Amino acid sequence: MEESRFHQEWAHPRGLVDFLTPPLAKSATGAALFGVFRHQDHGVVDDEARRRCGLIARHIRRAALIGNVLDTKTAETTAFMEALNGLAASVVDRNCRVVFANLSGREMLEDERILRLRNDALAAADSRPVLADVIAAAGDGDAGLGVSGIAVPLSAPPQTLWLAHILPLTSGARRQTGKNFAAVAAVFVHQTSLESPSSMQSMSKLYQLTPGEMRVLSAMGEVCGISAVSDVIGVSETTVKTHLQRLFAKTGTKRQTALIKLVAAHASPLRRQ
């Protein structure tokens, strides 16, 4: 070590004589280390230095692990928001006040052609009252609107037809989301027509999907994870993975979240126009 260029050209001129290195994290692709240099005034590493470093290292390791968890949560949140921003969506309370609106929702409210804020409450541009009535009913949860929610027309022929799909946030697994936002319903807005093909039909034709790929794609819209998809459609996880890789190749996506976002972009009532 003393004969190396590292020591002669960098460490020795700085008076460094030793280096104590406890590992913080290791994986198949790399490692994170915490290093303590020893100056010649303090001598080489001894048992007391190791003991003190051990006391410090456990706290630094814990901080590093917490940081990794936070990074993962941030990445998950970012991915979710990117998917959500592909929809025209808002979250409202019982009085129709908007407590959250994604990018598409904010753009639609600013445009005011379909929806607008009237006295801080979400309302149809043509002032039809049914939207407020349905949102109020969403406060009763699935008992009021049903598990799948209900679609409300925001325009009438001969104009282009716009629908608001109201999903209650006060029942089942959605209840916690409603509590976090002090909200009763999520509002998804989309343009539609009676001639519009279903999302699965349009994707099948557009990407030339096989029946097996279609079953996997359809199941992904209902359940989460390869194992769950395997159980739903009755094939092995290996088969699901094979179909999933082909779906990625055909659609130009790389992750399941991107694939689900693509399905949402084709689907009613969650299509962004």
A few lines on this structure:
With 273 residues, this protein is of the alpha+beta class. The protein is built from eleven helices and eleven strands. A five-stranded antiparallel β-sheet has the order 6-5-11-10-9. It has a two-stranded antiparallel sheet with strand order 1-4.
Poorly predicted segments: 268-273
Shape: elongated
By CATH reckoning, the class of the largest domain would read: Alpha Beta
- N- to C-terminal distance: 65 Å
Q: In which order are the strands of the major sheet placed? A: 6-5-11-10-9
Protein structure class: alpha+beta
Radius of gyration: 28 Å
- What share of the residues does DSSP label as strand, in percent? 15-25%
Number of strands: 11
The largest pleated sheet is described as: 5 strands, antiparallel
As for the CATH topology of the largest domain, it is Beta-Lactamase
Outline the fold blueprint.
Elements: H1 5-11, E1 16-20, E2 23-26, E3 31-33, E4 36-39, H2 47-84, E5 89-92, E6 98-101, H3 103-111, E7 115-118, E8 121-124, H4 130-137, H5 142-145, E9 150-153, E10 161-168, H6 175-181, E11 185-192, H7 199-207, H8 211-220, H9 226-233, H10 237-251, H11 256-266
Antiparallel strand pairs: 1-4, 2-3, 5-6, 5-11, 7-8, 9-10, 10-11
Helix pairs in contact: 2-11, 8-9, 8-10, 9-10
